[in-house]
Amino acid sequence: LGCGRHPHEGPLDYARRAGREVPAVAALLPELVDAYVRTRYLPAGEPERTRFLALAREFVAGAATRGRAS
Fold first, then answer.
1. Cβ distance 56 to 32 under 8 Å?
2. CA angle 61, 65, 69 (to 5 degrees)
3. pLDDT digits (tens, 9 = 90+) for 36-47
4. Which is nearest to 54 in space by CA: 28, 19, 16?
5. Distance between CA 36 and CA 38 in Å, rounded?
6. Residue 14 to residues 10, 33, 38, 45, 51, Cα–Cα distance (Å)
7. In sequence order, which residues have a C-beta less than 8 Å from that of residue 52 and are 6 or more positions away?
8. pTM score
9. What's 19's DSSP letter?
């Protein structure tokens, strides 16, 4: 994204700041971060993990289109 996470930021705070700093991804972050949080912090099953991975792949694939390949 071009804006690293600060040590004191959790995923939600980081996503809010990243959305402000990189407006091109702002609309994509809420769903992606929600899926990440559910996968990382809740006793989610395989459907949540699969959803997060699919969203993450879409996000990364779109990075080249947005000019911010990671």
1. yes
2. 65
3. 888 887 776 677
4. 28
5. 5
6. 6, 9, 16, 25, 20
7. 32, 35, 36, 38, 39
8. 0.66
9. H
